[in-house]
Specification:
This protein has 474 residues and is an alpha+beta fold. Among the domains are: 105 residues, Ribosomal protein S6/Translation elongation factor EF1B (Alpha-Beta Plaits); 100 residues; 63 residues, no CATH class; 53 residues, no CATH class. 53% of the residues lie in helices and 16% in strands. The strands form four sheets. It has a four-stranded antiparallel sheet with strand order 1-2-6-3. Strands 10-11-12-13 form a four-stranded antiparallel sheet, with helices on one face. Strands 7-8-9 form a three-stranded antiparallel sheet, with no helix packed on it. A hairpin with a 2-residue loop joins β10 and β11. α7 runs parallel beside α9, α10 packs parallel to α12 and α11 crosses α12. The protein is extended, with a radius of gyration of 41 Å. The mean pLDDT is 78.
Length: 474
């Protein structure tokens, strides 16, 4: 019996040991699973942290972009302040009417489109009707195209006025009726949430000043300069010729053709001479002779063209005159002016003595007449050609011109100063005083480092500003 009991005990111990081992193995596998799960979560968190770090590194660059966009917001948002305020829009239309000569017959706001939630930019539209020639309408379109605000034409309708019972004409061109839809936008600055505050905004804005300027220039739209009709025909008018057009008012068709051919021949000769003038193989003496001949022919044409162009009344010949005379003549003049400027710059990059003397006389006249901006503008336009060395014979004249420019700039700065003369006390036996911006100053007192009260009179006060004596009246 004792032997059997021992066996049972051994079996029980072995079974317990086996169970313990199995439990240990199961615990090991379970623990390993937990470890793998934790490692997976750790790797996921590390990836999230890395992504967050990458975003954090992008924050300075994103903040820079935000600063640049905020500073250039005015360039992006050139729109009307309120859909109910038509003043700016009406002024724009009035200005365009003056420039083109069209007759506006009404500007009416269209029904506002229903808002689809809160939007930063809300479109608003106006119907506008006008009467004018095709060329006036095209010029109107060009002005809208070049307008500084966001304005577009979304729809238009043209009714030809040519050949109607009550046909109207401006010169030789028929007057048409045009209806357009003008669209612009209002800016809803409250459409989004609060703007994010950026630390050290002013400092960073100054650091980004150059980039802000570059971005602003990138926003500028290149303008197209409308060139009137330039030989084009009115597509809205019947091109066929009526009987009363077969003979011109100033002469027969044959006479007009002969006149046109004469000018075309002159211009052909001029073009040949200009081409030869630009040829690098042409000698200096030949260039001088060619340039003189071209200018003589241009002078002869200038004396007759204004009267001769009035002779051309036959419509097809008027179109040819534009394309074969007017445009080529303008191109030749432009080429000759460019050639003259280039040659002058090659020979002498500075202004001739006579031109500097004329500049000084004109600036002095502007200053005497109080036209300070004109005086400063004259100098600034040729400043780069007045920087000759002191050994140049024109140097003293350039210094005089610069002195007048400094005088004009100083006077302009003085004019812009906020100096409110509220009263004076003139003391014949001592120093007089002036009540200026709420404070009393006597003659000889400094208002600022570069501004001195020089003389106080009953009707005016004399100041010395940056070494220049200037006056303010009561």
């Amino acid at each position: 019996m004792s032997s059997w009991s021992q066996k049972k005990q051994l079996v029980a111990i072995g079974a317990g040991t086996l169970l313990v081992c199995l439990g240990s193995f199961a615990g090991v596998f379970y623990t390993q699973g937990l470890i793998d799960e934790v490692q997976t979560q750790t790797e996921s968190k590390q990836q999230e942290i890395a992504a967050a770090d990458a975003k954090i590194k992008q924050i300075p660059a994103s903040e820079d972009d935000v600063i640049i966009l905020r500073e250039n917001l005015d360039e992006y948002v050139k729109i009307l302040p309120d859909s109910r305020e038509l003043i700016a829009f009406v002024r724009m239309i009035d200005d365009f009417e003056r420039q083109t000569g069209i007759q506006g017959t009404g500007l009416q706001p269209k029904n506002k489109r229903p808002d689809k939630g809160q939007q930063r930019f809300v479109p608003i539209e106006y119907n506008y009707e006008m009467k004018g020639t095709l060329w006036q309408f095209l010029k109107f379109l060009n002005l809208v195209e070049n307008y500084e605000r966001f304005v577009s034409i979304t729809d238009f309708q043209i009714t030809s006025g040519a050949g109607g019972r009550t046909e109207q004409r401006i010169g030789d061109d028929a007057v048409h009726t045009v209806k357009v839809t003008l669209q612009t936008y209002t800016y809803n600055g409250k459409a989004a949430g609060k703007e994010v505050k950026i630390a050290n905004y002013d400092k960073r804005r100054n650091e980004l000043r150059e980039e802000i300027w570059k971005r602003m220039n990138d926003l500028k739209i290149e303008h197209y300069d409308y060139r009137e009709k330039q030989g084009r025909r009115d597509i809205l008018a019947d091109p066929r010729i009526s009987g009363d057009q077969l003979e011109g008012e100033k002469g027969s068709i044959e006479v007009q053709k002969q006149l046109l051919d004469r000018y075309v021949g002159q211009i052909t000769n001029l073009q040949d001479m200009v081409q030869k003038l630009k040829n690098p193989e042409t000698t200096l003496f030949e260039q001088y002779g060619l340039e003189k001949s071209v200018r003589e022919v241009l002078g002869e044409i200038d004396t007759t063209i204004d009267s001769d162009v009035k002779v051309i009344t036959y419509s097809p010949l008027k179109l040819k005159w534009s394309t074969q005379v007017t445009i080529p003549l303008d191109e030749i003049r432009a080429q000759m002016n460019a050639t003259a400027s280039t040659e002058r710059a090659k020979k002498d990059p500075f202004l001739p003595k006579a031109e500097i003397e004329q500049l000084i006389a004109e600036m002095a006249g502007d200053l005497k007449a109080g036209q300070l901006e004109d005086a400063k503008g004259r100098y600034d336009s040729v400043a780069s050609r007045l920087t000759m060395p002191s050994t140049d014979a024109r140097y003293e004249l350039a210094v005089k011109a610069k002195a007048l420019q400094v005088k004009a700039s100083t006077a302009l700065d003085f004019r812009g100063m906020d100096l409110k003369l509220e009263g004076v006390v003139v003391n014949r036996g001592g120093r007089s005083g002036v009540l200026l911006n709420g404070e009393v100053y006597e003659e000889g007192d400094y208002i600022a480092d570069d501004l001195l009260v020089k003389l106080v009179e009953e009707e005016q006060v004399w100041f010395v500003f940056r070494g220049l004596t200037l006056v303010r009246t009561m």
